[in-house]
């Protein structure tokens, strides 16, 4: 499975959320609403989630193993950094 497209929408608000990303696999399957978050140890991604009946948030889609997660995260963060360099002022209001 190859990552064939990454689309980054930077967030204009101040805070930990820096961007919302869509990622496409094999030009056939897309996952929307992956978040790029600034944490204490740097940038990381959070997979799309929704609030369950018990109040906890559960991932809607996520990688099964750490190698796949690392590959997805590094690809997304690399693209995010490219977007920052190309368009430092452009961002969307969420």
From TrEMBL:
The similarity comment for this entry is:
Belongs to the SpoVG family.
Q: Taxonomy-wise, where does this protein's organism fall, top ranks first?
A: Bacteria, Bacillati, Bacillota, Clostridia, Eubacteriales
What's the protein name? Answer: Putative septation protein SpoVG
Which Pfam families does this entry report, sorted A to Z? SpoVG
| Organism of origin | Ruminococcus hominis
* Gene3D superfamilies reported in the protein's UniProt record: Stage V sporulation protein G (3.30.1120.40)
Keywords (A to Z) from UniProt: Cell cycle, Cell division, Septation
- UniProt cross-references to SUPFAM superfamilies, sorted A to Z: SpoVG-like
Looking up PANTHER family in the UniProt record yields:
SEPTATION PROTEIN SPOVG-RELATED
Fetch the InterPro entries from UniProt.
SpoVG, SpoVG_sf
Write out the function statement from the record.
Answer: Could be involved in septation.
